[in-house]
Design a protein that fits this description.
The protein is mainly alpha-helical. The protein contains 29 helices and no strands. Its main location: nucleus.
Length: 531
């Protein structure tokens, strides 16, 4: 980050005359009818009590007047700070008064109509960084999630206006002059990130806009590079995760900025030690969320491989610290539909580590001791093993993978069937609940019913069936004999597995294109025919 500029109250640095004139033009070019508002103010002698349109106009009038006075004073006495100090204090007070508008978000469209937003945002470039920080605080208040709740339309109008008037650019530019060594300025950093987060909540497209138009991604990367933990690094990791979670464009953009390597370095700090606080733990989870999002585009999977991300995740798993489960999740993302990562995983002896976890040898910590978190790890491991089978189709690596299901009296197959029964029972119970619904049943279409079943464990059950399909298709005599034996013992048949595979086949989507859908369905059909 650039060297932060010192704040200035009575010791403001010089501003060139051309810059002052430009600032004055920007400040006055807002089409606010001051004469009308002045007349309104003169007609009222009572103090502000009720927040309504009349109050809004009075607040705006007073703000615009103090802004004009400050601009004029700075132009007239550019080298005499004491001459404009009072006007700056008055401007600060008027900005503080505008915060009352957060109590009446229904008035936001009128605030926009009065063309006050350009004047407010223009102050983000004010020479006195305290004034800019006042504006950041105001914007955070106006866009606060609690304030905007149940006020969708006024919120949209405000955020649209902020975007149209370059709020994103101005907010991010202002970050460069804020020092985290000053408490007020650190608060302004927090408020800046909170405002951007609030804008994304109202208008999700802001997530891509802010990355297209500003250097926010680079600023955030700079923050998570810092080795020491602090609250700004924590919030930066959270904002980065938000920006990446639903945007392929942002995932690719950050990948091109060496983002994969930076995030890997950040999580590597926790390969052999645990976070020291709940806040630091949350930051580590945010960082792994970022990593998993980054691993969606195939080009970032390549970068992950080159940066030895596969090896790092295996080391984290072996260390059995708090990041254990997160490492499993990340390696699963890396290997999904990416055979090269699967091959690397086998080559660097990852099979021993992952199958130890699959057999239930999961380290118990305060994070994963709850049953739900243990199950989440199980589901990730099942997905990871399914990815391995999908990525390693032949050769010595395939033999090594299959041999894991033969060793120790086929204990991995026993474990797989144990999970099959558990998830099958869970899905049956969920189906019965859906059938017994009295009120929602008529409104619930087949797609929604299917999605409810997926949430109840059907997806994991389908992956288990897919793994059984790979095992059965291997035609390995000990493997097929063990599966047949366990099916008989459980009073099941291959038809039960085929039914699950058929439902999976019939619901494969075309998100990755029609050719990929056809290929995936052909693979499942092959399993069904083999049983």
């Amino acid at each position: 980050m650039e060297q932060a500029k010192h704040r200035n109250n009575n010791n403001a640095p010089k501003r060139k005359r051309e810059e002052n004139e430009s600032y004055a033009e920007n400040g006055n070019n807002n089409n606010v009818d001051l004469s009308l508002l002045e007349a309104l103010e003169k007609s009222s002698h009572s103090s502000v009590e009720v927040l309504d349109l009349r109050t809004l106009k009075k607040l705006v009038l007073s703000f615009e007047r103090r802004l004009r006075d400050n601009i004029e004073a700075r132009l007239k006495y550019p080298e005499q700070p004491e001459k404009f100090a009072d006007s700056e204090i008055e401007l600060h007070e008027e900005i503080e008064k505008l915060k009352i508008l957060a109590g009446g978000p229904e008035l936001y469209p009128e605030l926009v109509n009065l063309n006050t937003i350009p004047s407010i945002l223009g102050l983000l470039s004010h020479e006195n960084s305290d004034i800019a920080m006042d504006v950041v605080g105001l914007l955070q208040d106006l866009t606060d999630e609690d304030v905007l709740e149940d006020n969708d339309e006024p919120a949209r109008v405000l955020v649209d206006s902020l975007v149209e008037n370059n709020a994103l650019d101005l907010l991010v530019q202002n970050l460069s002059r804020l020092s985290e060594n000053e408490q007020d300025e650190m608060t302004a950093v927090y408020n800046t990130l909170a405002t951007i987060e609030n804008m994304i909540e109202v208008k999700p497209s802001v997530a891509e806009l802010v990355c297209e138009r500003t250097k926010l991604l680079r600023w955030l990367l700079g923050k998570i590079k810092v080795r020491e933990f602090d609250s700004i690094k924590q919030y930066a990791s959270e904002i980065l995760a938000i920006l990446l979670q639903n945007s392929s464009a942002n995932q690719k953009r950050l990948g091109q900025m060496n983002g994969v390597d930076v995030v890997l370095q950040a999580v590597a700090l926790y390969k052999s030690r645990d976070p020291k606080s709940e806040d630091e733990e949350e930051m580590v989870e945010n960082l792994f969320d970022c990593l998993c999002c980054l691993l969606m585009p195939v080009e970032n999977k390549e970068r992950f491989m080159k940066a030895e991300g596969v090896e790092l995740m295996i080391i984290i798993m072996k260390q059995k610290k708090l990041a254990y489960g997160s490492a499993i999740r990340a390696i699963d993302f890396a290997m999904t539909k990416y055979p090269l990562a699967c091959e690397r995983f086998v080559d660097v002896l990852g099979l021993k580590t992952v199958f130890a976890a699959f057999m239930g040898k999961i380290p118990v910590s305060k994070k994963n001791k709850k049953e739900s978190q243990q199950e989440e790890l199980e589901e990730r491991l099942i997905s990871l093993i399914a990815s391995l089978f999908g990525g390693i189709l032949r050769g010595s690596r395939r033999e090594r993978l299959l041999s894991k299901f033969v060793e120790n009296e086929c204990e991995k197959i026993d474990r797989l069937m144990e999970l099959y029964v558990r998830y099958s029972d869970r899905v049956k119970a969920a189906s019965e609940r859906l059938n017994n619904l009295e009120f929602d049943e008529l409104e619930m279409d087949e797609e929604e019913r299917y999605n409810r079943k997926l949430e109840s464990g059907l997806y994991t059950l389908q992956l288990i069936a897919v793994i059984l399909g790979y095992l059965w298709s291997s035609e390995h005599p000990r493997i097929t004999a063990r599966i047949e034996l366990l099916l008989r013992q459980l009073k099941l048949t291959t038809q039960n597995v085929k039914d699950i595979l058929q439902e999976y086949h019939d619901n494969i989507g075309d998100l990755d294109g029609p050719e990929e859908k056809e290929r995936a369905q052909a693979k499942i059909q092959k399993f069904i025919a083999a049983f």
